[in-house]
Design a protein that fits this description.
CATH class: Alpha Beta
Largest sheet: 5 strands, parallel
Order of helices and strands: EHEHEHEHHE
Oligomer: single chain
Radius of gyration: 16 Å
Structural class: alpha/beta
Distance between the termini: 34 Å
CATH architecture: 3-Layer(aba) Sandwich
Strand content: 15-25%
Shape: globular
CATH topology: Rossmann fold
Number of strands: 5
Strand order of the largest sheet: 3-2-1-4-5
Number of domains: 1
């Protein structure tokens, strides 16, 4: 691997995202790449269109600061064994932000989990993993939920 390549590991802090960690550790060691653990904060303004009445939404900056604290704790608890792990918080639409970040940072690989929904659940919930697979500038290792 090139010296400047990274592995991108998106997380939403869920139990499901923990299933990718053995793969992240294995691939970081094999490829000798640092890991960028990424959390994407969705902009709260998108929910204003739901017309829920007078609601005070936190700013993207406030959400990002809270997420960074949580991400640092997540890395400390689950990725401390991986050398050169960096926590990154992005703001926007998850699939777009992840693929854009991977392209700008010369990612060797994106490792992420998927619920494996199909049918109406897939239509209603969408799939960030599927969008990343379609748009990624690098290979994507998708770890499926086997439960």
């Amino acid at each position: 691997m090139a010296d400047n390549q990274i592995i991108v590991f998106p997380t939403d802090f869920s139990k499901l995202s923990l299933k990718a960690i053995p793969w992240v550790k294995r691939m970081a060691e094999t490829l000798k790449c640092p890991v960028h653990c990424v959390f994407v904060v969705e902009e709260p303004q998108m929910y204003a269109a739901l017309d829920m009445g007078p609601v005070t939404l936190p700013s993207p900056k406030e959400l990002a600061e809270q997420a960074k604290t949580r991400l640092d704790r997540f890395i400390s608890e689950h990725l401390s064994a991986v050398d050169k792990t960096t926590g990154v918080v992005l703001v926007g639409r998850p699939a777009h932000e992840l693929t854009d970040y991977a392209g700008k940072h010369n990612a060797a690989l994106i490792i992420m989990t998927t619920h494996g929904y199909s049918g109406i659940r897939h239509v209603l919930l969408g799939s960030t993993t599927e969008a990343v697979l379609r748009q990624s500038p690098c290979p994507v290792l998708s770890v499926r939920n086997d439960e």
